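Quarterly update from the structural biology core.
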Amino acid sequence: MKPLPMEVEALIVGAGPIGLACAIAARRRGINALVIDSGAIADAIVRYPIGMTFFTTPERLEIGDHPLVTSGAKATREEALNYYRGVARAEKLAVHPYTRLVHAERRDGHLECTLGTAAGPQTVRCERLVLATGYFDHANMLDVPGESLPHVSHWFDEPHRTAGLDVVIIGGKNSAVETALQCFRAGARVTLVYRRAAFKPSLKYWLRPDLENRIAAGEIAAHLGAEVLAITPTAVRIRTADGTQKDIPADRVYALTGYHPDFALQRQLGIQFDEAGDRPIMNAETLESSVPGIYLAGSVGAGRFISEVFIENGRHDGEKIFGDPGSRQAAEQKYQASPQASGRVAPRLRLGGAACGAPRAPDAGGSAPRPRDRRPGPTRGRSGRATFDRPTTSTSARPQHPEADQVDEHRRVGVAEAAQHADADHLDAVEDLEDAGDRQQDRREGDDRLGIGVEAGDPVRHQQEDQPQCRP
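Predicted structure, tokenized:
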């Protein structure tokens, strides 16, 4: 690998789609930018299941006006990796993979950044530091004994590896349900463990009848309202809804309980958060954080509410960070035209607590526009635009089948909500954070009854504070 430069104009942390888009925006303005990542290029997508197909359409994954050509209607994991790798090469971006940000502080008018490399710590000075680290590297931990055993993973790879095995999947959102169905069809003996008493309405409408029928037929075992107590080399111990303990045989365990950004890194850099500690304070127009010269691109600027920013809208952040006012305005227009998570609108936060990007005066047309609304609470809706393109088929035009009729019924019930989903897994992420908080509250209440003190701090106690950086 080429040696790192000692000084650059911009250091971009995260080589995912949004980090690469920021690097393109900088390079096209003649700004010398270095991109680093603790993993490979687009490392979050590397962690996606092999052969996975994106839920969104290819044009919404494109960066730098480079077309994403796919063999089907939607891009696969492999096509996306090839695309982002090719864009980095075509744009001649300076990307150093497997290099992480350890620390940064301001000295002599510059940001002095300590980077961790295979050769040891190295220092790079820059004028602007852009965090585009996403959240996919930090799983929401269960905090139970045995969670670190080698047969336990918080990321699903591929169903073929599970053939003939006893597989326990912890979680009940879209990712967990899809994993359960894929493993079942690969020949695994699947048990689904979910802490809630019922599956949420946000479960994809075509997954629900499939899963319910597999459970009814005894092909997939399910324990709803159950709590995971421990994981051993051969089993998962749970407390069922009726309070009894049970050991479930497990050769492989997938704990698909969601992910969260690396708040520790942001706080280490001195970035301030709102009073609730849920989201970093930043300028809505430039995306500059409370620390001068440090910018937040993509989902890291949304705090806990990571469903608000994803590739479709975060890919415009580089124009806001490196562009002039005209470029920022154009980027904002593209952002507003992208799928948005619906929900309660919060004022933007500026240094000192004043509204950042507060609503401007209404024009003659009516309501005041808002710069980049990021919502403050767990969202229960999605964008107003459908991203699936499945044509509706008349039931009279095809053979009748009970399971197909169930799909039609769930389609009628869920299509209005599903049409708002820009990417169904983003709502999962928000709800998983809520579940993580619920799990800690359950433990706190139990410890209070036993007279055991609970460590104060972040509502999600498994933030992995010792980790310096998460991947995009």
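The first helix runs from residue 17 to 27.
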